[in-house]
Design goal:
eight-stranded antiparallel β-barrel; 38% strand
């Protein structure tokens, strides 16, 4: 099953996709703190057609974030296959890191999405609200399973009252990034 070609959304309207998305669940990864809560992404369309990406999470009461740029992997294709480029470490952004961001499922109202990538090592369930109806969540899990993902790896992201813009002390030293590399 994992060897089948993944189906991705076609004809995505990037303008409608822009805005705030909350991480409902994801596969744990080395680049996100294990104790992160209220994790969210904010996408803003740039004039040149690229997308500004702001990923935020709160760990030990501090806001950690990283900014990057997303762009279509193949500008001529109507497939929702994007590349996302971040510069690390966040406190001294010198090393470019590029990853795949494939929209595997998106509802007609652009309220929830299933995001993956070709190796199936990463998976995210995103929602415009910080909570998701359990039926929708289970449907997205089933879609991920159909695409060859081992959904037993999914970890629900703790979400409570959404933090206000820039709320909380900022981790200006990028400690969350270093801790995540060390697996803490």
């Amino acid at each position: 099953m994992a060897n089948k070609e993944m189906e991705v959304v076609r004809g995505i309207d990037l303008k409608r996709y822009m805005g705030r998305w909350y991480e409902i669940a994801s596969f744990p990864s080395s680049f996100q703190p294990k104790d992160g809560v209220n994790t969210r992404a904010t996408y803003t369309l740039n004039e040149d057609g690229t997308v500004n990406v702001l990923n935020e999470t709160w760990s030990d009461g501090k806001r950690g974030y990283i900014e990057g740029t997303a762009y279509k992997a193949d500008p001529k294709s109507d497939e929702a296959k994007l590349k996302v480029k971040f510069y690390v470490p966040p406190f001294l952004p010198i090393i470019p890191v590029v990853g795949d961001y494939w929209v595997l499922y998106l509802d007609d109202d652009y309220q929830y999405a299933l995001i993956g990538q070709p190796s199936r090592r990463y998976l995210w369930i995103l929602c415009r609200q910080n909570i998701m109806d359990e039926e929708v969540y289970e449907m997205l899990i089933e879609k991920a399973r159909e695409e060859g993902y081992d959904v037993t790896k999914l970890h629900k992201t703790p979400q409570d009252v959404p933090p206000q813009e820039e709320e909380g002390p900022v981790d200006t030293k990028g400690i969350w990034w270093i801790k995540s590399i060390l697996g803490r």
